[in-house]
Write a structure and sequence with these properties.
mainly beta, four-stranded antiparallel beta sheet, two-stranded antiparallel ribbon, 6 strands
């Protein structure tokens, strides 16, 4: 499957259970979370981080998958 992120994707990380994909980058709604059903990705959350996205050095999920650090 593929998606249009709206620009360069700088960081991407699967959740520990493999059901979600978090991504940072792009030009609008810089932070996005997608659910994955084994075939397709569906956006479930987004947040505009603004210029801070250009300085993103990391992206990671907590071990239980409940939190994401950017």
């Amino acid at each position: 499957t593929s998606l249009d992120f709206g620009g360069n994707c700088l960081r991407i990380k699967w959740s520990p259970d493999g059901r979600y994909l978090a991504a940072v980058g792009g030009t609008t709604d810089n932070f996005k979370v997608y659910s994955f059903n084994g075939k397709t990705l569906t956006q479930v959350a987004s947040l505009a981080l603004g210029a801070a996205t250009n300085n993103t050095q990391g992206l990671d999920w907590s071990p239980d998958g409940n939190f994401i650090a950017v």
